[in-house]
Every structure is written in C-alpha cells, then in structure tokens.
C-alpha cells in the first residue's frame, strides 16, 4: 500500500484551482483560434478574437479568465493500492477554499433558499472512483453557473433510441441559444440511472477536445451531434456563425431494460479543466 | 450598423437612436446588480424605501466581479446571463432605468417594457471578464455589502465595449436558430 500525505494532495489541489482559473487549456485555445479562421461573419470573428485576447491577458495578469470562477468540481480516480492520510473529500475542499482565497477567485456558492453566500466557495463537489493501481488522479473543473443552468436530463423510452437522443440534445441547444456563452462544449451522458447520467455527462467534459471517444461508433455519434449543433447557426455569443459548439463528448454505460437515461451538460467556451496525477 | 460613444447616465435621445447591431462605447457611471441585489431592490420598492442609487437614466450591469487585486479597482468583470433578471427588469425600466448590460436572451415582457419606456439591452462578451475589467476605472460598493460578489457597486467605466442586442423599437440582434420548435 502506497501512503500519500494529506499535504501532498492539498498542495496539488491548490495548484489545480489556481491554474484552471487563469489558463485556458491549449486545446480549447487552439479550437477557438481555428474557429476564428473558419468564420466568415465579422461579429463571430470579433467575439472569438476577444476570447483569445482575454486568455492571453488572464495568463499574463493572473486575473481569472471569467469572473464566474465556478463551483469547484473534482473527479478523483483513486488507486486501490493507495492510502491517503486523512479524509480525501475534506482535504480537497480545504485546498479548494485556500486556492479560491489565494487566487482572488469569486466565491459563488450560496444557500439555495436564503441565497446567503457561503463566503469561501465551499463545498466542493467531489466524485471518487476506485481504480486499480497505486496512483491517484485528480481532475478539476471550475464550473460556471450560466452554462450549468442550460444543462438538462431526461428519461427517454428505449424505443426513442439514438434518434430520440439526437432530438433532445439539438433541441436543448437550440433553446439555450446565446445563454450558455457559445461556442460551447457539450457533455452527453447516456445510460446508467437517473443520478448517473448527469455524472457521465460531466465526466465526458474532461476529455480533451482533440480526443474523440475511443469507441468508433460513439466517436461517429459525437461528430454527428457536433455537425447538427453547428448547423443551428447560433454562433459565438449567439450573434450568428458556424461555431456554436467546439466539441461533443459522449460517455455511455448500460442501463435498465425499461430506461434510456440521458443528460446534457453544457460547458461554456471557457472550459477550465486541469488534472494532476500523484 | 453604427458606432456610438455614449455617456451614462443615459437620456431618452441617447437610447432612441440605437438600433440592434450597433456598437456602443460607454463611458461614465453604471451600477452592478444581479440576482440577489435585484430581489432586494424590488423588496425596497415594495416597502417604499429609498433605493441606493438613482434609477432615472441608470445603466445596470449584470455582473458579480471577482475580488480586486492590489492596485486594480476590480477583478474580472464580464456579464452574467440576463434572463434571470427578466422578473425585475420591466419594473425597473418603468421607473427610469435606461439600459441593462448582460448576455443572452430577454423575454417578451422585458422587450415590451423597453419599447414603452425607451430602454435598451446591451450585450457584452461573456467569458471575457479579464479583458472587460480593463475598461473599469473605479469601483465602490454602495449597498448590500453582505452579498459579497452580488453587492451593488458603482462603477466608473471608459469606452466599455457593448453591442445593442435589443433596441427600443422591438428589434433583436441574436441569430434565430435554424430549428423548428
């Protein structure tokens, strides 16, 4: 059994939080630059140019890319040969709080009904999967509220199948229009249970834009959905254009014979994700 | 499509000339307010209390900025999604608010209120909060400090880049999705 000190996890998570908020991942930046080349509309090119300028400014100045520095979401893949000294979700939450304070990131969490701010961005959302091995991988996403609000899940019937999935996803994005800060990235969770489908959709968003699903059939479905979404013509910030989404990522697993759970998790263009392996 | 340089607070004639798609560089004094602050403002109106800023001619920016680093008035400060304030916007337009700044679609009630009371809805680029903060020269919390990022701030801005999304004549600039609902 490999023993990892709480401090090691803590320092790694503080670094993840600070980096994700300030540095747009290279693949996202490249996708925005490529989209700018492919746009003929002046407003689309203008918006995409501003996003690239914003990314450079954030990296240079240390200002967060977006004022909505989001909910601190963490997906942990914990090796079954690892023992962490301490309570892992508590260590992650404490480190997240420290990172948000240190990095002058916005504290965006509140009581759902009184709307009183928790003042330190806690609690973090932490998912833990146990995997084989003696390493621990921590994936962090700073998830903004505007795009999260445009996300939906539903329980389709088995008869609706792939056509039903396509209809739901495309209709959702047509309805969302300019609201989630397009060009977006779309995570689609298919299968599992009512609670699992949205988690799959969120997990899908961690896959780099350049990486299609390893299953060729699912990869083809991702391409088909992306093409259909971009045909909507919503464009950057909803002002029209070829680029409504930068990517669609699907995660799928078996479900009950009665069900076809489906979730669409919408991510804005400021897709702030970062991971570390310890 | 034209480009205008305007100074806030705004007058009816500033707003009337604007058409959806026009670019505006806004200079002057504007106020931040988002979800929780709007609820409190409307509660104050219900109770007949005096509001923390003058609504006549006011420009309201839907933003909850990140904390200010040393030597800067404000942190990142881009727009939040506007539809959540649709509940409150018609009432505020009827009391003199001339413009709101945000991102995303407004509902029919807000558009109607802007036609009736000569108001305009400006879009700023969402997710460009670091860049937009460079146009903010001063920021001061004037109400609801306990709301943290949702407190009302008085901002002094110079050449803040805006696009007219909904004008006071019923026009909208957003692309209609190629989709039959």
Automatic annotation (TrEMBL), chain A:
Keyword terms: 4Fe-4S, Iron, Iron-sulfur, Lyase, Metal-binding
Broad enzyme group: lyase
Record Pfam families: Fumerase (PF05681)
EC number: 4.2.1.2
Fe-S hydro-lyase tartrate dehydratase alpha-type catalytic domain: residues covered: 11-276
GO molecular function: 4 iron, 4 sulfur cluster binding; fumarate hydratase activity; metal ion binding
Source organism of this protein record: Halodesulfovibrio spirochaetisodalis
Domain of life, per lineage: Bacteria
Family: Belongs to the class-I fumarase family.
Coiled-coil region list: none
Protein name: Fumarate hydratase
UniProtKB/TrEMBL annotation, chain B:
GO terms assigned for molecular function: hydro-lyase activity
InterPro entries xref list: Fe-S_hydro-lyase_TtdB-typ_cat, Fe-S_hydroAse_TtdB_cat_sf
Sequence ranges assigned to domain Fe-S hydro-lyase tartrate dehydratase beta-type catalytic in this UniProt record: 6-175
Protein keywords: Lyase
Pfam families: Fumerase_C
Record-stated family: Belongs to the class-I fumarase family.
Protein name as annotated: Fumarate hydratase
Taxonomic source organism: Halodesulfovibrio spirochaetisodalis
